[in-house]
């Protein structure tokens, strides 16, 4: 027989002992009597390196053994039955994500047979999130996808859900879990064959849920220190081996065990579940503990503070139980109850659990009797009694269940009493008085009683707790004036990670499928706008007012009413927005041909390719480089900064359709630029060229002119784009439907008009306007804040919140950037909740949270400049928070990948220019994936071995697989926006620029760096010089702030530091001038300095 503890942690996990080295773990395992020990934390790079250097493969078992000598832990003497343990490669992954309308927090144990498997798996996880800050990595990865990743890595990889009942971090937890295992793992459920019961439940409790009959139930310590190894463990018959151990569990799950098998799962060593710290219901802050019946009688509300109780494991088991009495399943592994030996000795001798005297007693027992598990489970009572009769009687009582218990609750461990104080006086007459033992062992609110099995059985009629948030999505109450369907879908959700079709790693909300062609109920304002056809129409729609919903409905109705798809155009600001609208229309009208729905540039590109099939679209970076080269040719005396500024000036002139004199330097630069683009037989175009060529060459006949042109985000149009729209419509503008919000016009630096309304009214005097004044996104408090930012005169009118949401508005003032970033990371960690039970205990009641739980994708950090991102990224990753900064993850920005892309572009161009054998070879290469072209790329000097090992190379391969050819990939690189590249497989806190966040929404938004110079942005201010921004520039910065504020639905956190570092310069910047307009609405916090420069935490001011 051998003992296996398969769930532990290393010193690289948060809140663990720093002594946890491999020799230390091996030494404790020998004291405990553990023969197979999990390594814990194998994804952490530093621990993985130690595993490689400190362990070697044991060929006979497929497990690993220690290269060196185990530490001597408790005693320098040999322990009778002790032998160095074998190690099984194991880690625990903390997954935080949304599924079925609620936040899930699932912990999963992962096992692999070899360190090479571990390395491959860790490399994959590293692409998804941060694995360096915590030995238990925190990822926004769905547990189903995690299992899929394990199976893709190795067919011998194993996943086992960890401590499946604990409230906060488990498969069935009352605050974070599912009601059925299939709801979590879906089609991959057959690959789950074992479940870890956790310290607060035992197999008998689990068997009350018949759905778990087909799973082996295992128990482990989840130890964070050497002394806690083996709090629970597993018993196997046979010789230890990786494959044999898990084969035995599979056999046990099938109820097909045979003691003659080479590998046999014999049972578990279990502490009494009452000793676990989440067994009963309660509220530790108020010292309230209740049984499930008592908490149900109180409505699961704490009678002291009125807050919800933490629903314990017993309560949650009863909720899912379909059996009302204990059952003994055929071929069920045995359960051996234990209490840790130091706890037993502490009770007998009246000693503190951490006293030196207790350590002496523990050492003496091991030296004379053997390992801890030998004493607790294997030695006869007579053998133990011969050494110490009191200890022998204690072990007998533990094995027979003759003990008194005090159930744990809300993070407070329970206690198990073997002897009463009176008994101890009689049994150990020479020992100190223990009359106060019971009083010291538990707070006043708790009870002590003999353990009775029936106490763990649910009473008849026990119902599910209303406070339990596990399982499916709750029904949302309807706000006054809000259509029922709008309420069911959470209002307008198209823009952000909480909405359907968000494409940001969040599972779509479940909803009833629409019947093809049927309408959806709109508000009265939306209905009036949707049905208007008598003149061109401009709809002014503020944040969350339902723009995408309205556009979709108008397209559906027009198609339903007989408009031909080719006579309808929908022009969007981004490719993603166009794809989303088409997806919604396709869902409503699955059998109908779809109209064009995409960007202005996509429309012009489609038209251009009809005439010039070999045309090439220049990426922005290449076009900018050619233009700057042309500026240098014409104006050689300009320095680099002025060259860049002049190039930007010319681009703005083109977008604004500003005339250029024939003999001007601008005209000369454009001629040089045109020549540079056509220095070969291939026609190359930049994005502005597309629109200019479209206007010049696109002559529409009345018979093919669109009847309807719908324009999204109309406030972002440049004059050049307005003229494109004008060219598509009759002189009157009939058929125009534009929707947008002038207060969200933030692209003046790209040539967008500062106020589109008067331009359109001058163009089409009959233009009608409508306003949508209900927001389905933000709370009223946030909407009022945004309105105040715009001097209480928003262009679309004052918005009314459709949902009765509360709001948290907090500002923080820090002396330094480092303190500001630490505060921000702490607040985000508080919103996400702790990622383990230990951390939860440390931060309980420390952070004011939002109603319900937050997932990583509910949170965004928005900055004015990309230069702010790296230091914030470091602060968040050091805190172990899953975070993605898409502007840092663009594979084509990698220097090595740029060489590969440039080489392949040359190959494609060469193939178009010639018609020989070489051209055929070049064309054939265009469909070969990167991996097949490695020899050629290396031979041509376009690739090195170093690049092959980078994440960028792997991302290139994935991007090629999606594109299907190099030509298509190069084209897509031109079109991509940074938000399009957010990793789709995992949720994370989003770290974005304010501009990139436009069109998205989040529950909580952080705005760090709320300083003059950053917001409003001014180059001179960042260089320590006075700067007077133009009124136009200042108002665009104000609108940018408006956009940032209205990304939030429930919480806003503004922060600013007096000193910060940017572009390598130490800066002292005042708080943003915009803060004076809105500061009265924020709860303000600050960190101040004493005269001695000592930092202290300030209070609310």
From TrEMBL:
Keywords: ATP-binding, Helicase, Hydrolase, Nucleotide-binding
The keyword Hydrolase is assigned to this record: yes
Record-linked Pfam families: UvrD-helicase, UvrD_C
Annotated UvrD-like helicase C-terminal domain residues: 780-1050
Regions of compositional bias (Low complexity) in chain numbering: 484-494
Sequence positions that bind ATP: 541-548
Designated name of the protein: UvrD-helicase domain-containing protein
């Amino acid at each position: 027989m051998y003992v296996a503890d398969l769930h532990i942690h290393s010193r690289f996990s948060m809140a663990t002992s720093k002594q946890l080295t491999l020799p230390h773990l091996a030494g404790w395992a020998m004291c405990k009597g553990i023969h197979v020990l999990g390594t814990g934390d194998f994804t952490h790079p530093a621990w993985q390196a130690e595993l490689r250097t400190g362990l070697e493969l044991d060929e006979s078992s497929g497990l690993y053994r220690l290269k060196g000598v185990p530490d001597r832990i408790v005693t320098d003497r040999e322990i009778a039955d002790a032998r160095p343990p074998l190690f099984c490669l194991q880690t625990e992954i903390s997954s935080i994500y949304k599924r079925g309308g609620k936040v899930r927090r699932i912990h999963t144990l992962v096992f692999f047979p070899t360190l090479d498997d571990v390395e491959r798996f860790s490399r994959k996880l590293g692409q998804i999130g941060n694995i360096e800050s915590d030995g238990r990595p925190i990822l926004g990865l769905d547990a189903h996808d995690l299992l899929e990743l394990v199976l893709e890595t190795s067919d011998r990889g194993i996943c086992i859900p960890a401590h499946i009942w604990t409230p906060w971090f488990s498969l069935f937890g009352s605050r974070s879990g599912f009601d059925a295992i299939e709801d979590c793992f879906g089609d991959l459920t057959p690959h789950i064959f074992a479940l870890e019961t956790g310290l607060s439940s035992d197999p008998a409790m689990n068997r009350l849920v018949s759905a778990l009959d087909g799973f082996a139930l295992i128990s482990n310590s989840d130890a964070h220190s050497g002394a806690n190894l083996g709090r629970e463990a597993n018993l196997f018959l046979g010789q230890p081996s990786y494959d044999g151990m898990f084969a035995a569990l599979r056999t046990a799950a099938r109820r097909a065990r045979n003691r003659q098998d080479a590998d046999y799962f014999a049972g578990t060593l279990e502490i009494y579940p009452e000793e676990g710290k989440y067994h009963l219901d309660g509220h530790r802050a108020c010292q309230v503990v209740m049984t499930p019946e008592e908490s149900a009688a109180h409505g699961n509300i704490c009678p002291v503070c009125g807050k919800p109780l933490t629903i314990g494991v017993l309560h949650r088991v009863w909720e899912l139980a379909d059996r009302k009495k204990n059952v003994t399943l055929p071929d069920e592994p045995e359960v051996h109850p234990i209490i840790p030996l130091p706890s037993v000795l502490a009770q007998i001798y009246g000693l503190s659990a951490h006293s030196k005297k207790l350590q002496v007693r523990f050492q003496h027992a091991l030296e004379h009797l053997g390992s801890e598990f030998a004493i607790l489970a294997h030695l006869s009572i007579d053998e133990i009694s011969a050494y110490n009769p009191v200890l022998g009687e204690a072990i007998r009582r533990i094995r027979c269940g003759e003990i008194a218990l005090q159930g744990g609750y809300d993070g407070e461990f329970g206690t198990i009493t073997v002897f009463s104080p009176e008994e101890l006086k009689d049994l150990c007459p020479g020992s100190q008085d223990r009359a106060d033992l019971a009083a010291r062992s538990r707070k006043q609110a708790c009870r002590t009683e003999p353990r009775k099995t029936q106490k763990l059985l649910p009473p008849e009629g026990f119902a599910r707790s209303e406070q339990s948030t596990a399982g499916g999505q709750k029904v949302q109450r309807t706000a006054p004036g809000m259509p029922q369907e709008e309420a069911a879908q959470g209002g307008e959700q198209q823009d952000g990670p909480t909405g359907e079709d968000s494409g940001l790693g969040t599972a779509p909300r479940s909803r009833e499928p629409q019947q093809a062609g049927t309408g959806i109920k709109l508000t009265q304002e939306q209905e009036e706008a949707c049905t208007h056809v008598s003149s061109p129409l401009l709809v002014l729609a503020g944040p969350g007012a339902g723009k995408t919903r309205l556009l979709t409905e108008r397209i559906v109705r027009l198609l339903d009413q007989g408009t031909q798809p080719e006579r309808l155009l929908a022009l969007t600001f981004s490719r993603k927005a166009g794809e989303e609208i088409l997806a919604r229309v396709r869902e409503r009208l699955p059998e109908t041909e779809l109209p064009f729905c995409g960007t202005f540039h996509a429309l012009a590109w489609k038209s251009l390719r009809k005439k010039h099939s070999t045309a090439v679209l220049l990426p922005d970076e290449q076009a900018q480089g050619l233009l700057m080269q042309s500026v240098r040719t014409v104006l050689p005396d300009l320095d680099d900064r002025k060259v860049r500024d002049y190039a930007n000036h010319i681009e703005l002139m083109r977008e604004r359709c500003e005339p250029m004199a024939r003999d001007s330097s601008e005209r000369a630069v454009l001629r040089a630029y045109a020549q540079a683009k056509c220095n070969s037989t291939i026609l190359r175009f930049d994005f502005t060229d597309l629109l200019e060529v479209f206007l010049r060459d696109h002559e529409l006949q009345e018979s093919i002119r669109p009847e309807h042109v719908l324009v999204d985000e109309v406030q972002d149009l440049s004059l050049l784009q307005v003229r494109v729209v004008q060219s598509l419509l009759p002189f009157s503008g009939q058929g125009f439907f534009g929707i947008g919000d002038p207060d969200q016009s933030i692209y003046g630096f790209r040539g967008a008009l500062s106020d589109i309304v008067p331009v359109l009214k001058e163009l089409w005097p009959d233009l009608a306007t409508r306003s949508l004044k209900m927001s389905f996104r933000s709370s009223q408090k946030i909407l009022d804040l945004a309105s105040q930012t715009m001097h209480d005169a928003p262009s679309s009118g004052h918005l009314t919140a459709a949902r009765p949401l509360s709001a948290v508005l907090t500002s923080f003032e820090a002396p330094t950037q480092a303190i500001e970033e630490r505060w921000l990371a702490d607040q985000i960690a508080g919103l996400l909740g702790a990622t383990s039970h230990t951390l939860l205990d440390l931060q309980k009641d420390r952070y004011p949270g939002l109603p319900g739980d937050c997932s990583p994708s509910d949170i965004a950090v928005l900055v004015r400049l990309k230069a702010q991102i790296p230091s914030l990224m470091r602060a968040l990753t050091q805190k172990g928070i899953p975070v993605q900064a898409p502007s840092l993850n663009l594979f084509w920005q990698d220097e090595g990948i740029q060489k590969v892309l440039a080489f392949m572009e040359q190959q494609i161009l060469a193939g178009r220019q010639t018609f020989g054998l070489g051209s055929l070879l070049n064309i054939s290469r265009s469909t070969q994936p990167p991996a097949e072209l490695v020899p050629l790329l290396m031979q041509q000097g376009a690739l090195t071995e170093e690049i092959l090992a980078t994440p960028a190379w792997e991302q290139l391969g994935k991007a090629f697989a999606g594109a299907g050819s190099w030509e298509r990939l190069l084209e897509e690189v031109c079109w991509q926006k940074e938000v399009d590249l957010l990793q789709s497989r995992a949720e994370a806190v989003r770290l974005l620029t304010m501009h990139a966040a436009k069109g998205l929404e989040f529950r909580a938004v952080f705005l760090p760096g709320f300083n003059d110079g950053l917001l409003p942005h001014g180059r001179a201010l960042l260089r320590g010089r006075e700067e007077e921004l133009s009124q136009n520039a200042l108002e665009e910065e104000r609108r940018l702030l408006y956009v940032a504020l209205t990304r939030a639905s429930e919480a806003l956190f503004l922060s600013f530091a007096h000193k910060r570092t940017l572009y390598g310069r130490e800066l002292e910047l005042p708080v943003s001038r915009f803060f004076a307009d809105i500061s009265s609405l924020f709860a303000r916090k600050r960190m101040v300095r004493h005269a001695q420069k000592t930092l202290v935490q300030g209070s609310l001011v």
